[in-house]
Amino acid sequence: MHLNGTDEGVSVLRLDVTESALKKRRLDREATPGVQAMAQRDKKYDRQLRIWGEQGQAALEEANVCVLNAGPTGSETLKNLVLGGLGSFTLVDGSSVQASDLGNNFLIEWSSLGKRKASVVCSLLHEMNESVIPKFVDESPEAVIDSNPAFFRQFTLVIATQLSEFALEKLDLICRQYNVVLLVARSYGLVGHVRISVEEHDVIEAKPDSRVEDLRFHKPWPELRRLVEEFDIDTGDPLVHKHIPFGILLIKILEDWKAEHGGQMPSSLRELKAAITSRKREHDEDNYNEALKAAYLVTSPPPLKPEFLAVLNDKKVEINSESSNFWIMVSALKQFMENEGEGEPPLDGSLPDMHSFTDYYIRLQQVYQAKAEADASTVEERVRTLLEQIGSDPDRISRTSIKHFCKNARNLRVYRYPSIADEYRARVGTEFQKLLAAEDNSNAALYVLLRAADRFAGTHKRYPGTADAEFEEDIALLKAAAADVLSEIGCHSASISEDLVGEICRFGSTELHCVAAVIGGVAAQETIKLLTGQFMPLGGPLIYNAISATATVFEI
Amino acid sequence: MMKRKGEDEPWALEPEAMAETVDLEGRWEDLDRLLLRPGYIVGPGFEPGIELRDMIKNDCRVLVIGAGGLGCELLKDLALTGFGNIEVIDMDTIDVSNLNRQFLFRMRDVGQPKAKIAAERVMERVRGVNVIPHYCRIEDKDPSFFQGFQIIVLGLDSLEARSYINALVCGFLEYEPDGSPDLTTIKPMVDGGTEGFKGHARVIIPGVTPCFQCSMWLFPPQVTFPLCTLAETPRSPAHCIEYVHLIQWGQDRPGETFDADSTDHMKWIFEQAAKRAEQFNISGVTYTLTQGVVKNIIPAIASTNAIVAATCALETLKIATMCSKGMDVFMQYTGTDGVYMRTFANEKDTNCIVCSPGVPVEVEADITLEQFIDAILTDSRFKNKLLKPSVSLQGENLYMQAPPVLEEETRPNLAKPLRTLMSGESGILNINDRKLKGVLRLQVNFKTADVDMDAGAGG
């Protein structure tokens, strides 16, 4: 271990491994690609590459993350990130290993007793995955926050574990100043809390669980129509009849229906289904059965989600020379929808499997892919023009990025989080009030109680229930603190069960390993989402209730 | 007793020496808050005290099935929750692709038995815990092996293995004459599972909460392709890969058994699938996809395993000590869109062939035992579940298929009316069969009641 020089006045120590880690990563990457010798790295990360792909992995490997406090919550969060191949981390903790660390933290050995905790946890994390660059700072997080705010500027993301309300507010201001994402994670007895704080987080690849099939059966474009015309769906050949893809069937049957009804659409799904059934010859014609199942796509094409419309209507769509690539692409997308797209975003080009002859299906697939390609090119032209207009390099955004953006356009998301200071000062919204007024309001009540416990600690210099002798007294004091919090957030009429107050005092700010493991898991998962820009992160503060094994995400 | 030292003071005692005698004072102070203090939201009969901590350390034996992604986490979590006697069973060896989440293993361990390495690592790190590994299949163990544990925790990735253990453990269950489970025969299970950003955890108290079989429907069926699509009209890269895997291999390499772990075999499948795809103008066959399709690879990440395993370990602690209310009873987790973590109290299936106190079977009043056996063999509910059923009534053998001595002894019963054998009353018959892992309990009701026998016709 040696001193890595001072970093904005903070002594950052790094383990004597950096060179070997760098070399190892280089070797991993340089290994012959291809079938013969699938690189070791690809094998090691195979199960996650199937989730976030090469791009997601690259984002993880480039990230530099800071974690405050090396207790089980911080250690478990880092463990999950280090295993996945995080680029580098800096662990900040100013304490020594005590007996209680041996009862709740797996990243501490028996022989570590009395040693500096940040150093111990850091080296055991590194031993877990030597491709990761480990650093630590042997100072208390509060001291670093107070004395060296600029220290935080270097990080992609800061994870603050087990930090009180007071220190968090300060850290949040610092992170916002440097535009560093802040993730708050906390374990408190059988309760946990995770929260994200950043001005804006844009998501292109939201990867929703239920994919919306954008197939345009209701509005086929000219090339698709031409392809449909090539098919005789009333063919006398029974084998051909049952091997025409359902997409072709739906478009053709709809056209025929409209021709017979003066250009009107079927008034109901039932009418359309009857028209499909009338063309079906045998019970086992899978293509017709699929057409019946997918018929709803004709009468009710997938709507644009409110979250997507909110992105289109965001004030940042009005771009200027400061605009990010994301907003320039959104701006071009909006123009596309208002013009060439006729209200629709670019086609994503994917086609679900359809019972069909191979060549019929492939031709249909090619028409979809060509349309997606053409849409992306139109958006690309608009992007280039916009870039020129704002006096920027028109080639600033690659074609690959624009295509990727267009493919995912329907699921764009923008997240904006209130600052922690705002969350603490503001009265809560009606959503939260409703949850608090509900019969089982446990998770909302726990949110209030965690804040009350911090307030208690601010006043009494100890967390409620820390000492057996003051237990009964603490229950009364915590109740009073909770009442204060309730009235400040505008919910003074809400009631919090005595049992929950008692439980919070019983926990006495302990960090149980299993609760820390759950919170560390959630925190790592949110970190991965934030770093890769994939999936949808938490929209508000989360309360984890280990008594009932449930979690609630609040809209504050 | 030792005092806790100040932070700046160097630790005076040799840690090695202390481990032999007693845990460090204060080591379990976080856990002690739950176990030593009275609680407000706790399970029935919770009695806080040092005895509880001693009980989970010394007397409570926990079996962890699976030493993979969930298993590694479970062993760590249970050890750091104070459980002192843990055993782990796993038939697998360590693979490079495990290392992104199975944090007890390193590159140098590849090829070693998972159970053995996992047990060693946990014992090295968490002083005082005893972890016994079993490097074998669960089927290799006698049912009495599973009887020896107070709680069984499942960290498995296959439905078959879950079904097997579930049937076996529910088979230990005995019911009282009034249909309530005999509490002394209940062996609780905690089950976890993950796939990518999703997972579940649940508590199975046989006879009380739904068993695995009761809620089989929660698991979607596996996607399979029709053979004619693979052979005649492939449209996707997966179709091409499955064709080579399921059909072409047998044709081109007759007599050779395909081994998914052989790089040569996998490479051949990939190359042939790529050729086939080109022939059909299909794009997208890659080596990674080939592996994924052929091995049915389920994506897996450290964080989801951590969340699900810790949930399971906490429920294990609750079952063992009642220190907190148990969860209600099936927890679902999804991390793709924010965080979704909720529980469902799904219902027991009264027709469950594994845990029901008696699956209702209605039969003609004059049916013979032989006819009854034929009837259950053709009952759609027990299709493919029974081969040669033996029948018993409250411990008395009515008909035994084996051994020959017993078969001969009970054979005369086959021709007798079932109703006579059951003393004229409806009731529970136990069915044993080689194909069943546990016992199948049938609630037999007779269709028409004789006037003088109506006492037993209820049920």
TrEMBL record, chain A:
Protein name listed in UniProt: NEDD8-activating enzyme E1 regulatory subunit
UniProt keyword Metal-binding, yes or no: no
Gene3D superfamilies per record: NAD(P)-binding Rossmann-like Domain
Pathway connected to this protein: Protein modification; protein neddylation
Pfam families: ThiF
Swiss-Prot/TrEMBL keywords: Ubl conjugation pathway
Protein purpose: Regulatory subunit of the dimeric E1 enzyme. E1 activates RUB1/NEDD8 by first adenylating its C-terminal glycine residue with ATP, thereafter linking this residue to the side chain of the catalytic cysteine, yielding a RUB1-ECR1 thioester and free AMP. E1 finally transfers RUB1 to the catalytic cysteine of RCE1.
UniProt GO BP: protein neddylation
Family: Belongs to the ubiquitin-activating E1 family. ULA1 subfamily.
Recorded GO MF terms: NEDD8 activating enzyme activity
Automatic annotation (TrEMBL), chain B:
Single annotated GO MF: ATP binding
GO BP terms, alphabetized: protein neddylation
Annotated keywords: ATP-binding, Ligase, Nucleotide-binding, Ubl conjugation pathway
Residues in E2 binding domain copies: 361-447
Database matches in Pfam families: E2_bind, ThiF
Active site: C228
Annotated SMART domains: E2_bind (SM01181)
Enzymatic class: ligase
Record field: catalytic activity: ATP + [NEDD8 protein] + [E1 NEDD8-activating enzyme]-L-cysteine = AMP + diphosphate + [E1 NEDD8-activating enzyme]-S-[NEDD8 protein]-yl-L-cysteine
UniProt-listed Enzyme Commission number(s): 6.2.1.64
CDD domains (UniProt xref): Uba3_RUB
Region forming the signal peptide: none
PROSITE patterns to which the protein is assigned, alphabetical: UBIQUITIN_ACTIVAT_2
Biological or metabolic pathway of the protein: Protein modification; protein neddylation
Family: Belongs to the ubiquitin-activating E1 family. UBA3 subfamily.
Function description: Catalytic subunit of the dimeric E1 enzyme, which activates NEDD8.
Database matches in PANTHER family: NEDD8-ACTIVATING ENZYME E1 CATALYTIC SUBUNIT, UBIQUITIN-ACTIVATING ENZYME E1
Annotated protein name in UniProt: NEDD8-activating enzyme E1 catalytic subunit
Organism of this sequence: Riccia sorocarpa
